[in-house]
Every structure is written in structure tokens, then in C-alpha cells.
Amino acid sequence: MTTALGLWFAFGVGVADYHGGFIAKRANALATVATALVSGCAVMAALLVFVVDSTVSVGDLLLGACSGSFIGFALASLYHGMAASSAAVVAPIAATLASLVPFVWGLATGGSLPALGVVGAVIAFAGLTLSTVSPELGDRVRVGVVWGLIAGLCFGASLTFLGETGESSGLWPALMQRCTAFVALAVAATAQRQRVFVPTQLRSRAAFSGVIGASAVAAFTVGAQRGSLAEIAAITALAPAITAVMSTVFDGHVMRWWQVVGAIICAAGVAVIGVA
């Protein structure tokens, strides 16, 4: 069950990131994420009421709020980086760190470091380095690396907080995550005198991104609560492949052969970490 939920998480994140990156090239990143979060909150609330039986826990709500304080800026950083650089550079970095941070957290809280985990980390970072080599982008590679690192660390922190919630709380922490993220981004956009929502012609696409993204987070939450955080976090590395395929099919984006190989190596490395 955990594997199935993890696969849906990776698929949903990949699809949502593709649409989010598309919108961010035509509107600012803060507005892109804030608009998507509105529909995401609605979907999460509906799932909470009609699908997942749960009870409210104050501690888990606080964990959800902490997760939300990171996830909003993680998404904004990811979409800004994809618009300024390339999904081929930004997405693999973000996905790798999003998987590795929960793994490191497990070690810091008393877990052991198996030899297989060390091998997986080395493999993941080797693939990460290879997948970000894009000579045709010039200086934009550096920009993509920076935003990918920021997004990945924020994603990792967010998933770690969410993964620490109890099974009895169900999707309440995830709903709190979405609501907190929206408030934080709305305040940030207002403070910078930017639009809180994207233009009307882009809102349906942003809403779709929010729906698919929220369903992915719901899958992650349930999977982490009922199974292994390391296992479901490891599958996150597959998300950039979905985004890259959609960019290639719909936008004519061309991934170099070494970027494809690097992404595969990266996914394999993170999968090894999950097994470890």
C-alpha cells in the first residue's frame, strides 16, 4: 500500500510541477502557488470529510503548520527556478534533497546509517551532478542549482514534519499545511506588492495543479503515517521524470542523453536509500 501511495505521490507531484512551471513563466511564482493552494485546500477538506476517518490532534496540527511554512516557499522556489532556468536542472536537485532530508532526520533522531544507505546517497548525488549539466543554458545553470537547493531543502523539511504526524490525525495535518502555506504566501505577495492570484486566464490551470498536488500530498500523508517514511520519501525522486516527460511531449523540451541517465541514476540512488 505504501508503494502505491508513493507512486501516486510522485505522479501527482510531477504533473503539478509541470503545470506550475508553465504558469510561473507567465505570472509570478508566489501567485502561482497561492492560487493552486486554494483548490488544494478545498480538495483536502473534502477528502478529510468524506474519505479519511480521523480525529484532531493539536500536536499534529502544529506539525502540519510547520510543514506548511516550508511547502509554500518550496513550491514558489521550484517554480521560480524552473521559469528562470530549466526543469531539467531544478527538479532533480529539489527531488533528491526532498528525499534525503527525511533520511538524515531519521539518523539525527536515533536511527543508524546502514552501509547500503551510504551507497545510495553516493549514487543519488552522482546522478544529481550528471543531470544538472546543461551547457546550452550557460549562467542559467547556476541559477537553477541555487533555486533547486532552496526548494529541495524546504521540501525535505516540509515532508519530514508531515511524516512525523500520527495515523489517528489522518489528513488534518495536511489540510493545516495547505492553509498555512496559503496564508504565508498571500502575506509575502502582499508585502512585495505582487498579485496574490494569477490572471483569470491561468486560474483553471492553477486550480488543476492544486487539485492534483493536494491529492499527492494526501497520499504521502497517509502512506507515511501507516507505513515507512523512508520508503515513501524515496519514491519522490521519480517526480522529475514525470515533469520531464510532459515537458518533452507538450513543450518540445529536449533532455540530453546524460541528463536522462543522471535522472535514472538519481532515482536509483534514492530508491536504495529507501530500501536501506
What does this structure look like?
This protein has one domain. Helix content is about 80%, strand content about 0%. The chain has helices spanning about 1-25, 30-50, 60-85, 85-110, 115-130, 140-165, 170-190, 200-225, 230-235, 240-250, 255-275. The chain is globular and about 50 Å long. The model has no long low-confidence stretch (mean pLDDT about 85).
Ends: how far apart?
A: 19 Å
SSE ordering:
HHHHHHHHHHH
Regarding quaternary structure, what we see is single chain
The total beta strand count reads: 0
* Average predicted local confidence, pLDDT: 84
Please state the CA-atom Rg, rounded to the nearest Å: 17 Å
- Percentage beta strand: under 5%
**Shape, please?**
globular
Helical residue percent? over 70%
Any chance you could write out the topology, listing elements then pairs?
Layout: H1 2-24, H2 29-50, H3 58-84, H4 87-108, H5 115-131, H6 140-163, H7 172-191, H8 200-226, H9 229-234, H10 239-251, H11 257-275
Helix pairs in contact: 1-2, 1-3, 1-8, 1-10, 2-3, 2-7, 2-8, 3-4, 3-6, 3-7, 4-5, 4-6, 4-10, 4-11, 5-11
Keywords:
globular, mainly alpha, 276 residues, 0% strand
Q: How would you briefly describe this protein structure?
A:
The protein is mostly helical and 276 residues long. It is built from eleven helices and no strands.
